[in-house]
Stp1/IreP family PP2C-type Ser/Thr phosphatase
Amino acid sequence: MNGCFLTNVGKVRNHNEDAGGIYKNDTGQMLAVVADGMGGHRAGDVASQMAAANLHKKWQDVSLLSTPEQSESWLEHAVQDINSELFHYASEHEECQGMGTTIVIAICTKYFTTIAHIGDSRCYLANAYGFKQITEDHSLVNELVRSGQITEEQAEHHPRKNVLLKALGTENQIDADIKTYSFEQDDRLLLCSDGLTNKVKDEELAELLTFEGEWSDFCQKLIDKANDRGGEDNITLAVVHYTSTEGKEGADEC
């Protein structure tokens, strides 16, 4: 299992409110995280970094997850715990009131991958069946598209495109969408913030399916595209590639 995580401040903002990483536990199972913070004076980076750091810490204590049920249960409880931590931290620190973060998380094992998400950070899966987005944005424009009120083309330029319907840490109780998928040799996952997907189309992201080479090059190429097209937002992505190449497994902070 190989992974690569990369984040970039973009070309407009003066600090990075995205966070995340790719982490392994003692059993060799992998956790990938992308979080996109929001709210308050520099509180977005507090929310996203707290969420990623707490997930990393919790992951170090995980024993082998051998079934989807175990994986989904762990994610459900981890998300609820971290949501509570963020919510109460914001209530006790005036400068952080209203802060929150999107989150997309992938547990990757030799047999399956379990995905949890809140907000509009996304996960894509590339496998023998093709390339597809496997999360659904918790956003106003996505609900308008789902209900037929606007088209996908109109959604791309909608004035309220960035309005989220829910985010981690903004309410006392919140539920993530959690699903498990089969994960097999040569399958690939892409987790990313909207700083990437607002600038790089799915057809371009679909290179994930056929890419051969260094994943650091793949990630940097996508970040360069987003920056070349304005780079108004922070840009973050994580790639996990299911490969059992001996001696080359690992997670790279690219």
Notes: The first strand starts at residue 2 and ends at 8. The chain has one domain: 2-246. The chain has a mean pLDDT of 92. Helices lie at 43-60, 68-92, 140-146, 152-156, 194-197, 202-205, 215-228.
